[in-house]
Each structure stands twice: as C-alpha cells, then as structure tokens.
C-alpha cells in the first residue's frame, strides 16, 4: 500500500522575504492536534465541546456509557482516557464525541483490545430543533443576500473539510484561513495557544439536516428509551491537557530537488546507520541504569543484537521512513484528523498494516450493511506528553509502547434508537487498530 498525503501549494508572505525566499509552504487536508495548556494551569474546566487528552471523560448529557465499555476486555480493569474529541459531522444537528481509552496493566501491554475507541451520540430533540431552526435562518439570510446582491452563494460549501456545524458559534471559524477549524468559540488567554477549544467536523457527510428533529421526535414516541444507569467505576487518569489545532503544513526548499541528484558514498551511509544503531541502543528508557533490569553480559549482547536488527528493519521499512518524513515537518503533533482520508502507518511489518492496506477493516456489527472509514489517529509524541511527570520506574512498569493508534468509525454514524437512553444519548464501540513500537519492546 503506497501512502499519500494530499497537498497543495500556497503563496507565502513575510516581512522578511530573504529568510523565506527558498521556502514554499504546502498544506495537506489533514488537521493536526498539538498539546496546549494543562488543566492544572487554568481555571477553565473542559466541557463537552472541548477536545483534550488525559484527564477524565465528559459524557454527553451527563449520561455515561455502560460499564463494559469502560473496562479492559483482557483484565476487566478500568481504562485510562487517552483522547476525547468533540467531532460533530457537518450538516447534522446532534452532538458527537470520539473517546479513546487504554489499559496500562503490564499484563495487557500489546494485547488486542487493550486500546478501545468509543463513539458517543446525543440526539436531544429540543437542542436539535433549535439548531435546525438556526440553520434554516442562516439559509434564508444567505438566499436573501443572493437576491439583493445578485450573487451565487453556495450554502453547502464543501471547500473546507473541517467546517463547523455548530450554529451557535460566536463567529464563523472558517472566514479566515488562520482560524481554528475545530473551534466553535475561542476562549480567552489560555497560555501561548488560546484556541484550545476544538470542534472536529467535516463536510464529507451530506445528511438531510432538516429531517433529524422530525425523525427523533417521532421515534421517541414509539421506542421506550433505556434508563440511565449511573456508573460507579472510578477511572484512572493521566494529567489532562487541552488541544489546539493547525492545518498540516510542509515547508519545502528549492534545494530539495538538488539533494536527490547527489550520490553518496555507501561506506559513509553505513557509518551513519551504525551511529544511529548505537544511539538507539543507549536509549530505551534507561533500562541499564536500573539494577532490576541488568542482565549478564551474554543476555545484554543478545538484547543489543535484537535492537540492532529492529533498527535495521525500521531503516528498510518504507512505511516507517514515510512516517518519519511526514512527521519531521510537524514533530509536536499528537493527533491527526482526516475523516475519509488515509492513516499514516507506523510500520508495514504487522497485522494492522495488512488489515488497513488490504481494506479489511471489519464492518460494524451493529450496522452490517455499512462499512467503516478512517477518522483519526494518535501519534507517539502523545506518550511523551502524558508520561512527562512519571519517573523511570513508573515508565518501565506502566509506560505505553504504541507507535500509532487508528480509529475507524461507521460511515453512516449509526446507533440504534433502542440504544439511546432517556437523555437521547448512546455509545458504541468502533474499530481501533494499534501499531506497536518494537524498539520500546526490546
């Protein structure tokens, strides 16, 4: 499977043309999430319309999912929240959230189902009707403007794949190219990056927005909703951080093409590879500095050989090389959001690669006539951020070892009305694929 990142060139303006004269910025259609201010450094508490990593989940309409969704399928222990992303789809009037959880028990590391993705939906008919009314007023206003000024206004603009569907935004976040495409409303003065309030939305889904309220109001009369059961589970947590976003940008110099024509001495490349191997061998979370993990010389040599083999495999893995090439432009990314797009694969040497590359993502069991599409992935930089305050022993015992986590969601965004509770809220598990970091495993 050849990976591609769709890009387009954009003019760059700067007061200092000399500095940027060799740079042509290019953007992809991927939206990146980056760590912003920690919860501990602000009085603002996250709301359902925020997206964040770590901390505790916020449930739609104060309705938690069933306990079994919050427990590891391997050990039945509560799981840590990795990500909560407010991700309503464009032209829909209901709230939608993606949650990603992970089990940190050492016995569950690298096991299937130790990471879980949950999609939550809230179809509150009162709120949906209010949103529909606002959308209707906006459309009438646009139509009137078109008549008055004889302009052709496209009210179903699809040029921005992350356009917000929230009509209660204080302003349209896509009027300016510098606006936050996740942000229904920007909070004030929260550290260096103040636009941490994220709404992830896309124009890929064309759903009849005028029918939702009517459908919900009719079906709720016929279907007896599930009773809300308050969960008694206490979830462990990482430190919480807000996320701010930016469109993925690549900077390419005019000299890049020249570099392709340069021929290298292979012996120099071999020396560089050996240098990389030696550097990586000295890393791995300071295992050698901890007496519990010291082995005899023979075992240590075996481990070093395995590490060297792992590095050699990585250097020859085209997927991993492409992963490095893309992430080096934006090394602080913790989240990639690209609904209907393609994931950035960490390796081509595992079952998840085959599942994704051969289009073998399982159909949703709750909607077998449908299929799943890629929505988002978590990047390994998130591990560094969430484990920043752990000591070496804690990292060794409870540290995470994944290279990337992929979430695929139902293309129809379906949840059976029977699964909605009295607050019109329901949760469903989606497909979650994990590519592990083999180097950390050694």
UniProtKB/TrEMBL annotation:
Gene Ontology MF terms: protein carrier chaperone; unfolded protein binding
Source organism, top-level taxon: Eukaryota
Organism: Ascoidea rubescens DSM 1968
Domain Programmed cell death protein 2 C-terminal: 317-436
Cellular component terms (Gene Ontology): cytosol
InterPro entries: PDCD2_C
GO BP, one annotated term: maturation of SSU-rRNA
Protein name, UniProt field: Programmed cell death protein 2 C-terminal domain-containing protein
Pfam families for this protein: PDCD2_C
Lineage: Eukaryota, Fungi, Dikarya, Ascomycota, Saccharomycotina
Database matches in PANTHER family: 20S RRNA ACCUMULATION PROTEIN 4
């Amino acid at each position: 499977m050849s990976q591609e990142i769709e890009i387009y060139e954009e003019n760059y303006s700067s007061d200092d043309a000399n500095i940027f004269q060799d740079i042509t910025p290019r953007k992809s259609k991927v939206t990146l999430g980056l760590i912003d201010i920690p919860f501990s450094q602000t009085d603002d508490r996250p709301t359902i319309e925020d997206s964040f990593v770590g901390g505790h989940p916020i449930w739609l309409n104060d309705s938690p999912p069933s306990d079994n969704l919050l427990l590891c399928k391997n050990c039945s222990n509560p799981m840590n929240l990795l990500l909560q992303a407010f991700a309503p789809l464009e032209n829909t009037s209901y709230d939608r959230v993606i949650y990603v959880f992970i089990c940190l028990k050492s016995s569950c590391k690298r096991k299937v189902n130790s990471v879980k993705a949950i999609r939550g939906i809230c179809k509150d008919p009162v709120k949906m009707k209010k949103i529909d009314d606002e959308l209707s007023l906006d459309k009438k206003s646009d139509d009137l403007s078109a008549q008055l000024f004889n302009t052709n206004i496209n009210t179903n603009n699809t040029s921005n794949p992350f356009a917000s569907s929230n009509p209660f935004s204080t302003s349209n976040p896509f009027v300016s190219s510098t606006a936050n495409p996740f942000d229904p409303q920007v909070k004030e003065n929260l550290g260096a990056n103040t636009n941490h309030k994220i709404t992830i939305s896309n124009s890929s889904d064309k759903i009849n927005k005028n029918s939702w309220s009517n459908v919900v109001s009719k079906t709720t009369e016929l279907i007896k909703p599930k009773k809300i059961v308050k969960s008694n589970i206490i979830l462990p947590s990482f430190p919480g951080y807000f996320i701010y976003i930016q469109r993925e940008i690549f900077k390419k110099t005019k000299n890049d093409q020249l570099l392709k024509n340069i021929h290298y001495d292979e012996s120099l490349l071999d020396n560089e590879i050996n240098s990389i191997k030696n550097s990586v061998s000295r890393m791995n979370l300071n295992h050698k500095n901890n007496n519990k993990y010291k082995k005899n010389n023979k075992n240590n040599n075996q481990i070093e050989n395995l590490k060297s083999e792992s590095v050699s495999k990585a250097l020859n893995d085209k997927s991993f090389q492409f992963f490095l090439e893309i992430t080096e432009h934006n090394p602080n990314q913790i989240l990639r959001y690209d609904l209907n797009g393609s994931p950035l694969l960490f390796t081509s040497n595992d079952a998840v690669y085959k599942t994704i590359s051969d289009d073998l993502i399982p159909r949703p069991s709750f909607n077998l006539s449908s299929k799943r599409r890629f929505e988002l992935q978590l990047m390994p930089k998130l591990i560094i951020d969430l484990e920043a305050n752990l000591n070496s022993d804690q990292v060794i015992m409870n540290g995470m070892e994944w290279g990337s986590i992929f979430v695929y969601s139902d293309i129809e965004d379906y949840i059976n009305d029977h699964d909605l509770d009295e607050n019109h809220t329901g949760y469903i598990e989606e497909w979650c694929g994990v590519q592990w970091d083999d180097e950390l495993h050694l």
